[in-house]
Amino acid sequence: MIVTIHQPDFLPWLGFFNKVRLSDLLVIGDHVQYRNKGYQNRNRIKTIKGWQWLTVPIVHNWGSSINEMMILNREQNGITWDDLHLRTLQVNYGKAPFYDTYIGIFEKIYKRRIEMLAECNLEFLKAIFSILGIDIPIKRTSEMNMTGSKTDLIVEICKAVGADTYLSGMKGARYMEESTLEQNGVKLLYNNYEHPVYEQQFMEVGFEPNMSVIDLIFNHGPQSFEIIKSGFKGFELLPGQQQKIKSELEQE
Description:
The two termini are 34 Å apart. This protein is an alpha/beta fold. The longest helix has 16 residues, at 117-132. The protein has one domain (2-251). The strands form 2 sheets. The protein has a 5-stranded parallel sheet with strand order 5-2-1-6-7. A two-stranded antiparallel sheet has the order 3-4. The chain has helices at 14-21, 81-93, 99-110, 117-132, 150-161, 178-183, 213-220, 224-229, 241-251, and strands at 2-6, 25-28, 42-47, 50-55, 138-140, 165-169, 187-191. The chain has 9 helices and 7 strands; from the N terminus they run E-H-E-E-E-H-H-H-E-H-E-H-E-H-H-H.
């Protein structure tokens, strides 16, 4: 069984969904510490000026785990965050071919005013799975009593769910102790993914890769899943890729 593990990001990018569609089980790592300026409470959308963040406001409680983070559900500057998001999406995607087809699905989730960030992200995730036709079971580490970290945590999760194969994102090469996985009978695969180019809004300012998946969905609707699949280049890193990824980490 192939398992992939990912933190509960807000409206993730295309590579995440490719990783999920190649797996038998998705484990949401929501018990780990919330990381500021990551993707748990924000993601990027395309605008006439390039890209901008779409951010969920949170109650700042540094040191808490992701599943403990609360959304700041009150008006700021005379508007609630959900109305601000919906207005922002309408301004930037209102003329996209499939905006009217799908905006109602997202609006229902926004209007529920969910209090916990991880719960909100999971609701959006399930809605996108339904749109893309992805059917996969989901487990949350906050319900699994995990104690390890980094590679040890991956091994612990794989043993807990009975997985013999772990599908990692390419950036996993930065920290993955491949020998630890091998010693514990876990095969390592990589989601070697190159972002596909597709028609977006405001193409006059150029193509913007690594947007939230909603950018693709609003622009291409039923073809979105096939476009996501087109970026997959195999389960192994190509020669030199791992060293390149590790070098990027050293420069950060």
